[in-house]
Amino acid sequence: MKRLLETLVENNREITKKGNLASYIPELLNADKNDLGVAVITLDGKVHSAGDCSKKFTMQSISKVVSLILAIQDNGKERVFEKVGMEPTGDSFNSIVNLEIKQKVKPYNPMINAGAIATTALIYGVSEEEKFEKILNFTRKVTGNNDIDINKSVYKSEKLTGDRNRYLAYYLKSNNTIDGDVEDILDLYFKQCSIEVNCIDIAKFASMLANDGILPWSGERVISREVSRIVKTIMVTCGMYDASGKFAVHIGIPAKSGVGGGIMAAVPKRMGIGVYGPSLDKKGNSIAGTHILKELSDELDLSIF
Ligand code: GLN
């Protein structure tokens, strides 16, 4: 396995040149465009990795999986899906059109920004600090890494430049889709996006999803089988934004990407995969990371379809 992963990194390193770093969050421009890494955790808990696997990056949209899980755990699936839909969009992850013209009140799904702002708003806690602790502690638990923390510079950069998310959130509030203080909700959203991980961390997270909610390395159940199923299904249909259909046809693995360059992919009953490559394609997905997943899927016959 290690040899296969090393070959994949080597073969795809050149592809990083064809994409670009995310620039709309200025701090993300500090990443190294050539970085590429992949980690696989099989369900016996074994870790295999190659390339730039210890490089840290912010979860960005991968954190949408965390807020969806916590929102369902706190509110039940009925209430969550009253507030946010479960249909894919053909639009970009931060699209305004999609909210304002097509559906008006409910964001299409929890994997686009508007949908994630809505699920983040549903997380219970007596204070904003408590809510963030909950997000952070959950992330630490499912990655088995207690050192995980927020990248403060990215958080500040997002908060300073996040006007599009501000627009989405105030629009949701005006339609009563979210309750509470909009700035507090946004602050929590920016913080969860700025949680810093590496490939191995997200591969571990994915291995829990692949294992129906049980941590492979300890046997502990952290989410129900049903929540794990719902999350993986939404990852298939919506996890790669408006490239989800193509990704399902060519790769066929439930996955969630983030503009920090990470992709978290969960192969049911088989393995968790974490990929990092901050050079992105036009849809905001890691360009070389997507290629690695394609080759890995072909090589090991990982498509669920
Ligand atoms: N923090 C980013 C944003 O809100 C997350 C988007 C992403 O990773 N696609 O725009």
Secondary structure: elements and pairs:
Layout lengths: L1 H11 L24 E6 L4 E5 L5 E2 L4 H13 L1 H7 L13 H7 L9 H9 L6 H16 L5 E2 L1 H10 L1 H12 L7 H12 L1 E3 L1 H12 L14 H14 L5 H7 L4 E3 L4 E6 L3 E6 L10 H14 L5
Helix pairs in contact: 1-13, 2-3, 2-5, 2-11, 5-8, 5-9, 6-9, 7-9, 8-9, 11-12
The protein binds glutamine.
Please tell me about this protein's structure.
The strands form two sheets. The chain has a five-stranded antiparallel sheet. Helix 1 (2-12) packs across helix 13, helix 8 (163-174) crosses helix 9 and helix 11 (225-238) packs across helix 12. 47% of the residues lie in helices and 11% in strands. It is α+β, with helices and mostly antiparallel strands and 305 residues long. It folds into two domains: 2-60 and 196-299, Beta-lactamase, CATH 3.40.710; 63-193, 3-Layer(aba) Sandwich (Beta-lactamase). The mean pLDDT is 95. It starts with a helix and ends in a 5-residue tail after the last helix. It is globular, with a radius of gyration of 18 Å.
What is the alpha-carbon Rg in Å?
18 Å
The percentage of residues in β strands lies in 5-15%
Strand order of the largest sheet: 2-1-8-7-6
| Estimated structural class | alpha+beta
Label the overall shape. globular
Top CATH class of the largest domain: Alpha Beta
Family: Belongs to the glutaminase family.
Catalytic activity: L-glutamine + H2O = L-glutamate + NH4(+)
Enzyme class: hydrolase
GO molecular function: glutaminase activity
